[in-house]
């Protein structure tokens, strides 16, 4: 399949694996890239820039195809060593960087001077326009259905994708709510040049998380996610479990809840432990509404080939109706 995104990223199919904390490791990224998509390592999953350098080299031993690195720019006082992370990516010969969170303008020029394609993830058209002005090469536009942080505007993909396509002059990638070839066909029809999937790639053989977590995603329906931190204007969509239900109930109490009161429930180390142990109710598990469309755990190769086949069939069917 040939789109502006496949040409820009040097990949066979316009399917990108989103950067996911604790999940974006060499096993998954290399499998997606080997299957013709673009795998993504998650920089902040690694404890230090030196560990990220090792993970980049490890991924290179597992695929000869392009892969990228996600850098999530956190709005916190004690930020990770982003300058070192960027230098490690450049030194490692990585050709694609996905940025998310805060504006990447501080690092965009340096990355592009090194020949790296910069894709920035946004949850609104206004932020996408700002990123375009600051020189990124493509936008991953993230609808309200997505896992993780969907922003505070609550605009779903069916509206957000065409709105972004109409407003931007650079290519866009549709993110959030996509797990099937039909969804991919819809995104392409709405103006996207590719799709980005996180939750769907969690439920694959190569995803480096416990099988209990994968089976929980398979068992979940489209109503089985929760929106935490709404009252703090830092909304996060996660799988419904004991932890997320407790947090949401706390936020509904008269007077709400302070983050310090629930930090022990949502701490990243606790979420990582749950992902690795398979204790689904012991930590936060990021997941999008797309869990309602996931009913198996294929290999990345099987998933991508199936999606491409379904996408072509859906586009052909729609074309036949129009004719």
Automatic annotation (TrEMBL):
Keyword annotations from UniProtKB, A to Z: Flavoprotein, FMN, Monooxygenase, Oxidoreductase
Name recorded for this polypeptide: Nitronate monooxygenase
CDD domains to which the protein is assigned, alphabetical: NPD_like (cd04730)
GO-annotated molecular function: nitronate monooxygenase activity
Keyword Magnesium applies: no
SUPFAM superfamilies: Inosine monophosphate dehydrogenase (IMPDH)
